[in-house]
Write a structure and sequence with these properties.
3 domains; Immunoglobulin-like; alpha+beta; 6-stranded mixed beta sheet
């Protein structure tokens, strides 16, 4: 049996269309052309159903042509969503490549089954008489009709069919341009449209994910700006020039630490188009509350390497300590440090008497001291004063020393 008889023309055409569609979709330079749409529609809406009908009804007397065409559309609409549902429960999911491969494998496998079953039926197998159809149309157009009116009507019919096909192709490959707009959104830290951290303690940061989707049917340059109560915040340079092509999506996590406390403060995210800087193109905002929280200053004493301070000394040994101050007063604070050994003041340089710290900043310095007397449980006191009140110690750390000869 010849190859032509084993592979009917209609099934050969189906396989060629499947192969062409796969190549067009998978090759990047071609995947963005209208050819993808022209081949993709029958790939989804007709070919799977036609191959399934060919496998189920291989005989020429099983169904007539109109029934085969109608059922091909109907079964394709039923089979393709079913394939998608099955893919949804697989590790591959509903994505372009898994769907393309699955539909192609289904269509090709049904064609192979149809070839086998038609081969068994031989002369009783269904086949599309493309050659007879061509010769009939050619004969109708070339043979002199019985009347001039018949010839005119035949020509009008052919022109109407060609015009309908060309109109359909034009509508498919050049869809009407929709509304031009840009999506601009902010998401919480987990990527959902909720969970925004709007109740803050001073020093905490607002974490959001900012997203832009370009539906402007053109390349657009955007810039992003952030304001807190109409005061512009510093932004990274890469957020001042964001270029997006049509249908392109841009997302980036963005963090911000409010510099002051307040209630019902308006935190704005403004999106500008490069061709119009006079006003924001899109505007989003959050209302945040920032409380000062507990105010305190931490004074700590440790060894030079951060370990516990040595308390057992020999007379003449040098005691080296690291003194640290952490300011959490929510304002600039001036401090002064004093040192006392066994109730007596120890002279310190001016660097320890004029210490200015911003909120949430830290200061550390080493202090060396050599005990001048021996004894047990001698108090070594590190005393911190605030500039606003030098009459009483603000913080104090006491270390008990044992000094022997």
């Amino acid at each position: 049996m010849s190859l032509k008889k084993r592979l009917p023309t209609d099934l050969k055409l189906v396989l060629i269309l499947v192969l062409l569609t796969d190549l067009i979709v998978l090759i990047p330079p071609l995947s963005g052309t209208p050819i993808r749409t022209v081949l993709g529609l029958p790939m989804v809406l007709f070919l799977p159903g036609y191959a399934l009908i060919a496998a189920l009804f291989p005989g020429k007397d099983d169904l007539d042509g109109i029934e085969r065409i109608a059922l091909s559309f109907g079964l394709s609409i039923a089979v393709v969503p079913l394939i998608g549902l099955i893919l949804n429960y697989t590790p591959w999911g509903i994505r372009l490549l898994p769907i393309l491969v699955s539909i192609s494998l289904f269509t090709v496998s049904m064609c192979l089954v149809a070839v086998y079953r038609r081969d068994i039926l031989d002369a009783e197998a269904f086949d599309v008489p493309f050659e007879k159809m061509y010769l009939s149309v050619l004969d109708e157009l070339t043979t002199t009709p019985q009347s001039r009116l018949d010839r005119i009507l035949s020509i009008i019919l052919v022109i109407s069919i060609l015009a309908s096909v060309l109109t359909l192709v034009y509508v498919v490959v050049t869809p009407k341009q929709g509304e031009k707009f840009t999506e601009f959104y902010i998401l919480g830290p987990d990527g959902m449209a909720d969970g925004y951290n709007t109740q803050l303690v001073s020093g905490e940061q607002v974490d959001v994910v900012v997203g832009i989707v370009n539906h402007e049917y053109d390349l657009v340059n955007y810039s992003l700006e952030m304001r807190l109560d109409d005061q512009t915040m510093d932004m990274p340079d890469d957020l001042e020039h964001i270029s997006l092509s049509h249908n392109m999506t841009w997302e980036m996590p963005l963090s911000f630490v409010p510099s002051e406390a307040g209630t019902d403060m308006k935190l704005q995210y403004l999106l500008y188009r490069e061709d119009n800087k006079t006003g924001p193109y899109r505007d989003l905002h959050l209302w945040i509350n920032v409380s000062e929280g507990e105010t305190f200053t931490d004074l700590y004493v440790s060894g030079p390497d951060g370990s516990d301070l040595e308390s057992e000394l020999t007379l003449g040994d040098e005691l080296v300590a690291t003194i640290g101050i952490f300011n959490n007063e929510y304002e600039m604070t001036n401090y002064s440090l004093e040192l006392e050994f066994n109730g007596r003041g120890v002279p310190l340089s001016d660097n320890f008497h004029n210490i200015s710290l911003e909120h949430y900043s830290r200061w550390e310095r080493p202090i060396a001291f050599t005990p001048v007397s021996k004894g047990t449980d001698i108090e070594m006191e590190y005393i911190l004063y605030r500039e606003s009140n030098f009459t009483a110690p603000y913080r104090k750390q006491t270390v008990l020393l044992n000094v022997t000869e």
